[in-house]
Amino acid sequence: MRLAVIPARGGSKRIPRKNIKTFCGKPMIAWSIEAALASTCFDRIIVSTDDEEIAAVARDWGAEVPFFRPAELSGDHAGTIPVIAHAVQWQQANGKAADQVCCIYATAPFVHAQDLQTGFQTLLNTGADYAFSVTSFAFPIQRAIRITKEHRVEMFHPEHFHTRSQDLEEAFHDAGQFYWGRADAWLAGKPIFSPDAAPVILPRHRVQDIDTPEDWERAEWMFRAQQQATAA
Length: 232
Known about the structure:
Blueprint: E1 2-7, E2 22-23, E3 26-27, H1 28-39, E4 44-48, H2 52-60, H3 80-93, E5 100-104, H4 113-126, E6 130-136, E7 145-147, E8 153-155, E9 172-182, H5 183-188, E10 197-201, H6 213-231
Parallel strand pairs: 1-4, 1-5, 6-10
Antiparallel strand pairs: 2-3, 5-9, 6-9, 7-8
Helix pairs in contact: 1-4
C-alpha cells in the first residue's frame, strides 16, 4: 500500500493560516492534494492536522482526515519524521499497513504529479530508504560570505577566493516539496539527509520556500508566470 501524508498544523506564526490561505485562486493545501491525486501514486491521501478548519478544507479538495494529530506533535518544534511516523502507525492500526509513504508539504504549490511519480520510481529503483526533491544552489556555496559583528565581510572558505566558479563542486539543497520513504524508515526515525537517501532533482524555477510574506509574494509571481508560459 502506498500512502501520502500531508502535514498541516494550524499554528503558523509568520504567515497566519498559511496552509489554507488563498494562493493563486485556491487554498494553499489544495495544490498539494491535487498533485497527489493526479499522480495516481497513492491508495490513500491523508492530511495530518490538529485544526478543524484545515480538516474541512482538506476534505473539500479530496483528501481524508481520519484522525486529528495529538498536541505533542502539533507544536512549533514538532519534526516531520515523528509526524509521518504517527500517521504510519495510525494506518497500521486501522487498515492495511503502508509499504511506501510520501510526505508532501502543504505549502508546496510547485509540486508536480510527475515529480511524485519520479520520486516513487527512484525509491524503488535505488533501494534507498528515502527519495526526496532537491535543487541546486544558484551560486557556488564555497564562495559564500558572512557579515561579521563589526559589519565587515569575510569568506566562509577563503581558500576559494581565487577558484573559478566553474571549477567548484555544484551543491544542492532540499526543495521542501516531497519525501518518499519506506514505512520502516519513517517508523525507525531514520534521518532523511543521509547516504541512504536518493535525490530527485528539480529545476530551480520550480522551487520556492514560503516562510515569510515576501516569500509568498515571490512564489505567486513565479507561479503565475509558469501558468502563463504553459498556457501560451
